[in-house]
TrEMBL record:
Its cofactor is [4Fe-4S] cluster. InterPro entries: Aldolase_TIM (IPR013785), DNA_rSAM_put (IPR023874), Elp3/MiaA/NifB-like_rSAM (IPR006638), Endo/Exo/Phosphatase_dom_1 (IPR051675), rSAM (IPR007197), rSAM_sf (IPR058240), RuvA_2-like (IPR010994). Keywords: Iron, Iron-sulfur, Metal-binding, S-adenosyl-L-methionine. Pfam families: Radical_SAM (PF04055). This is DNA modification/repair radical SAM protein. GO terms for molecular function: catalytic activity; iron-sulfur cluster binding; metal ion binding. SMART domains: Elp3. Transmembrane segments: none annotated.
Amino acid sequence: MAQLDTTEKLTILADAAKYDASCSSSGGKKRDSRGGKGMGSTTGGGICHAYAPDGRCISLLKILLTNSCIFDCHYCINRKSSNVRRARFTAKEVVDLTLDFYSRNYIEGLFLSSGIIHTPNYTMEQIVEVARSLREDHDFRGYIHLKTIPDADPELVAQAGRHADRVSINVELPTASGLRKLAPEKSETRIEGAMGTMRTAIEDGADARRRYRSAPRFAPAGQSTQMIIGADAATDRDIVARAATLYSRFALRRVYYSAFSPIPHASAVLPLKRPPLMREHRLYQSDWMVRFYSYTPDEVGAAVDPETGMLPLDIDPKLAWALRFREHFPVDVNRAPREALLRVPGLGPKAVRAILTARRWRRLRMEDIARLTVSVKKLRLFIITDDWKPVMLADRADLRTLAAPKAVQFELFAA
């Protein structure tokens, strides 16, 4: 590997990390350096956010330790057989970069992942050393998210949890068959075993904190995972079911979805085109339906196309479910329980709370709902108010056309 300066390494390894979507800093422990101790903060003002070309907000230094790898996963641009420019940071270089970027007010913390070099244990040791040095040598109090390696020794993974706010272990692909086909060197059993061990360690750490205030924190922001969408034949129904299983078995904070991107010199087993980015967006919406709207995975699965198993791209999955199960609508906003209101397309948890509060004092009319929500255009087809009852609309065969958002033609030379 040619000798590169730090700037060149950063260019290569920051670009290589862009495929990792799971870099949210939500749920981290609140720490700051007021009082003259330590460096960094996870809260308060003074945090600058950068925006990636695709619009995602990035407030962490998001890099790989190295993009070299001994594995040859078909979908990965950094796979062993890939003809990409390689680079590698030392643990000290990552520490220095993090502190330098933080002191310049560019970031609020670090997201660190890596290809596998030499052995999984050796790579995990280097990742842990970065976090250990930041916490112990420099008293860094910002956010740290470490991507751990399921094949590494459990004690090394546990050390990552002692220093990081959040840890994550990627399941890579939604199905076991997809993993065997596209990443034969990785094992679903080992991945899930590592996730189970991490869940136990996080719960033990939380229990120790409840019993003893002096007990050290262990990954207080929990663990997350990521799966690649569109690289294998998994349908949206498969993905929703898989995500629900991961949430229940491993108490994950988040499942992230990353649309597959075609890579140079790709394997013949990979699709030639990337899936629509809207598919990734619809999966995130379905994820919220299960987590915050009390839908079961089977109910979300009922919103997919019966033949293809895919969620519709032109309407959101909540609207798709409502159109398929019209017998649940319209909902009377003056009488319906919270669970029924949450299923109305266009109503979110905040709007439902406002409706439940307002109706204690008066019967609600459509004009009241308009003040409590962003728009009544979609939801007016699915609700009853004191002055509105869509009896004729509810039985119309073209209800989807009425409910779906209208396509907008943008002007080429518009300002």
